[in-house]
Amino acid sequence: MSAIDPQASGKPMIAIDNISKWYGPVQVLNGCTTQVTKGEVVVVCGPSGSGKSTLIKTVNALEPIQKGAITVDGIGVQAKGTNLPKLRARVGMVFQHFELFPHLSIIDNLMLGQCKVLGRAKEDAHDRGLKLLGRVGLSAHSHKYPGQLSGGQQQRVAIARALSMNPIVMLFDEPTSALDPEMVGEVLDVMIELAREGMTMMVVTHEMGFARKVANRVVFMDRGEIVEDATKDDFFDKPRSERAQTFLSKILAH
Amino acid sequence: MFTDFDFGVVLTSLPYLFGTGMVFTLTLTALAASGGIILGTIIAMMRLSGITALALPAKIYVNFMRSLPLVLVIFWFYFLVPYIGQWMTGASRPISVGAFTSALVTFTLFEAAFFSEIMRAGIQAIPKGQTAAAQAIGLTYGQTMRTVILPQAFRNMLPLLLTQTIVLFQDTSLVYVISLTDFLGAASKVAQRDGRLVEMYLFAAAVYLVICITASTLVRRLQRRVAIIR
């Protein structure tokens, strides 16, 4: 990946422009604006119920919005003519509860999208799937079913499944929140490696260690608003808002 | 009083009972169950589509069918289907479809209402995250249903679908009202002809019992084999 290309590096991969969202009368997102540039890793954090998971799900239109606009690689997510399945295929997503397909073997989980969406031949998809499993250290498990793996292993498979589509950007929605503590590390390691390889990433997480290690920017949300959007160092060393300071003191206390 | 019984009549009528009666019963059950499950799945998807124009007719259909006695529906279709055929093809006189076709259409449409409720529960039981995950890798709505949601729903609902099929198997005996001869009808005919009512009906009951218990056992075994590992 050429980070030197001046046009590519400055171009937003994800541009979120003043979006708002309501569940009935309850407003869950309020005028959120931020962007993720190519090759950047942006961590979204904030107290529970702050709207961070909702925000990341609006990026690939799993959650609709009522106001504002989002573009991914220049394509309007809400635009009328946009082919959503096609757009989503280019945006990898990893969920809190893994969401592997339990009736399919691990390798079939990795082949489904490749064959049905990208139209790859079975052998090709199989080979690529195995390679990705190797990358997340799970080659030996290709013929098992998701229910036979540990949470950490399932989440690594889920990352591999997202990568099997050759995404231009990866979204992580609290990827380690549902894991037993001893399994958090193995998933974060895969994510750190991915970040170091230059993958564009938007990550909702409470793992501040991860943020410190690989994030370029941190977006702090509270009550549906983006309260702070700063570089990693600015956010951790001199958070401007009181709410971010309180949040940091709470989360870093232990 | 039992000394008067002659179960020999059962033996001599076996070829007729099974060759004609049971073959009819099984054929009707298999065809109506297959058709009912396919149609029922479509109706379930309509009800869950969130599109009123699809959901409302499906809902009305299911509630309508489920509130009618099956015998009434069998009669109704028997006399109505020829006229519907005439209306659809523009023929000059009612189309003769035959009692079997009429019965098959009836059972398929009737059972579809019940199968659709089973499939609806099955589809609803699949976590929303599965749909989100399928959509996130770029699958369309149809692909998501075919490759992710329905295969899981079918597996989960298999015991109920087959139990409903066993009920259907028993219900097919109602075709006697339009003069079709199923297994029970065949037994009944022999019983009346030879004046061996008790013997024939006891035998028929035994056969239904054996078949249904065997089928239930197989359903349980099958369920264990296709169960999703969680």
Automatic annotation (TrEMBL), chain B:
Pfam families: BPD_transp_1. The chain crosses the membrane at residues 7-31, 68-89, 95-115, 160-180, 200-219. It is a multi-pass membrane protein. It is found in: Cell inner membrane; Cell membrane. Residues 22-219 form the ABC transmembrane type-1 domain. InterPro entries: AA_ABC_transptr_permease_3TM, ArtM/GltK/GlnP/TcyL/YhdX-like, MetI-like, MetI-like_sf. The keyword Zinc-finger does not apply. CDD domains: TM_PBP2 (cd06261). This is Amino acid ABC transporter permease. The lineage of its organism: Bacteria, Pseudomonadati, Pseudomonadota, Alphaproteobacteria, Hyphomicrobiales.
